[in-house]
From TrEMBL:
Protein name: Glycosyltransferase
PROSITE patterns per the UniProt record, alphabetical: UDPGT
GO process terms (BP): glycoside biosynthetic process
GO molecular function: quercetin 3-O-glucosyltransferase activity; quercetin 7-O-glucosyltransferase activity
Enzyme class: transferase
Length: 482
């Protein structure tokens, strides 16, 4: 090897993860995949996230990437504080927490990166060369990357449809659809790469009632910065959103690398990512016939009304289907841990229903007994359901979920709605929908087609794998050109 080749820096990525479950999962998999390509990775969790992970996986130790290193991957693990003590309830004080983060967190990141670089100066060839952050992380990634001469990689963990909405906020504003009036329904047909979308399916933060909230403040700043990122990764599949991705490419090159959570042939995939302890549903599922079980989960974060929970509970009872229902603490209110189900409900459903506080969702969805998923339509849940070929009943609540519902029900035709837009759940209507859904061969056939598409995309010659290899090539070329 020539002397000049020996002196090249070893590509070293600093990854700072957004502290919510739906963002942690794809970030960890991206870290493993980059490390499998020979990159050094320093993966950073907030101390509050590390605390939750350690509590949920007490046997896993303090370094969640130790097994990855034993398998040959060079992943270093670090933690970073946020402006609050560990005992501060971040969920209960959501807006105050994120307002403070928006104001104070950039300085904490700056201090962390400065110390990391200073500690690496004895071996300049291992200095960080690129920064990977979540697109929603405001505008500080651009500032940090510029200050420390790092390439700026922005990772969007949701579909391209959502990315396009936020990328073209100027167009939405021009047509008076940002902020969008709460009660209007109009077709939007001017977004590049989006044939048509109804205002009811816009991201909830774009609507007037939420447009001044903390979520939109983060997203607006984040998309100011992402337009100057060196690389944009999206956790989606080209075949599912080809028109949107092609249109985005005209404004900024992007790489569709999803579903990253299902990367194959890695030396290890045992990194702990769940912020909650998981119940094992395997034995219960083994007692059920193929395709007979409806799985229900409304994600790790969003809240719903107690009335809708009760209507869904009674709908399940009326439908007579077998079901597993994840009823986590805080599903109605961040401060309420009491049982939100009707009094005596669990004894009434007996062996037909299993109520758990949390579970391994992929393990459940991949079980042959599961024939459907009643979901809030968070993107992680949608991708996992598609990967397993399980059709969905959609109950979108906020954030990205209305737009994800559109992809599932209207574009891909692999799901139905549990309720009409803007209405509460009605137990009798929901029960009838559940029964029709569980017996629908059409939905199963369409779901199988989408499953095949996703799995082909992750093969060696699939679109997502090729896109990832192109990203690796382009990233290394830019690192070595610096």
């Amino acid at each position: 090897m020539a002397e000049s080749d020996q002196r090249k820096p070893q590509p070293h990525g600093l990854m700072i993860c957004f502290p919510l479950q739906g963002h942690i999962n794809p970030f960890v998999w991206l870290a493993l995949k980059l490390a499998s390509k020979g990159f050094i990775i320093t993966f950073v969790h907030l101390e509050s996230v590390h605390y939750k992970l350690a509590k949920a996986h007490a046997h896993a130790g303090d370094d969640f990437f130790s097994e990855a290193r034993r398998s040959g991957l060079d992943i270093r693990y670090a933690t970073m504080p946020d402006p609050f003590p560990l005992e501060f309830d971040r969920d209960l004080n959501f807006d105050y927490y994120w307002e403070t983060m928006l104001r104070e967190f950039p300085a904490i990141v700056d201090h962390f990166v400065s110390n990391l670089i200073r500690s690496s100066e004895s071996d300049p060839l291992q200095l960080p060369t690129f920064l990977v952050t979540d697109t929603v992380y405001s505008s500080w990634p651009l500032d940090i990357a510029t200050k420390y001469k790092l390439l700026n990689v922005s990772f969007w963990t949701q579909p391209a449809l959502l990315f396009t909405m936020l990328y073209h906020l100027d167009l939405l504003s021009l047509h008076a659809h940002f902020p969008c009036k709460d009660n209007i329904e109009e077709e939007i047909n001017y977004l590049p790469g989006v044939e048509s979308i109804n205002t009811r399916d816009l991201m909830s933060s774009l609507r007037e009632a939420e447009s001044q909230g903390i979520v939109m403040k983060f997203l607006a700043k984040g998309f100011t910065g992402v337009k100057r990122a060196d690389f944009v990764l999206l956790n989606t599949v080209f075949e599912l959103e080809s028109q949107t991705l092609n249109a985005l490419n005209k404004f900024q090159p992007n790489y569709a690398i999803g579903p990253i959570n299902f990367t194959k042939n890695l030396p290890t995939n045992t990194v702990r990512t769940s912020l909650r302890s998981e119940s094992d549903c395997t034995k219960w599922l083994e007692s059920k016939s193929p395709g007979s079980v409806l799985y229900i989960s409304f994600g790790s974060f969003v809240q719903m009304s107690k009335q809708d929970i009760e209507e869904i509970a009674y709908a399940l009872q009326l439908s007579q289907v077998d079901f597993i229902w994840v009823v986590r603490d805080g599903v109605v209110s961040a401060s309420a841990d009491a049982n939100v189900l009707p009094v005596g409900y669990e004894s009434e459903i007996k062996e037909r229903g299993l109520i758990v506080p949390w579970c391994d969702q992929v393990m459940v969805l991949s079980n042959p007994a599961v024939g459907g998923f009643l979901t809030h339509c968070g993107w992680n849940s949608v991708i996992e359901s598609m990967w397993c070929g399980v059709p969905m009943i959609c109950y979108p609540l906020m954030f990205d979920q209305p737009a994800n519902r559109k992809l599932v029900v209207e574009d891909l035709k692999i799901g139905i709605d549990i309720r009409d837009h803007g209405k509460s759940v009605d137990r009798n209507e929901a029960a009838a929908k559940i029964n029709n859904f569980m017996s629908s061969n059409r939905l199963r056939e369409e779901s199988h087609k989408v499953k095949t598409t996703l799995r082909r995309a992750m093969e060696v010659d699939g679109s997502s794998e090729i896109s990832f290899e192109n990203f690796v090539h382009d990233l290394k070329a830019k690192i070595y050109a610096i």
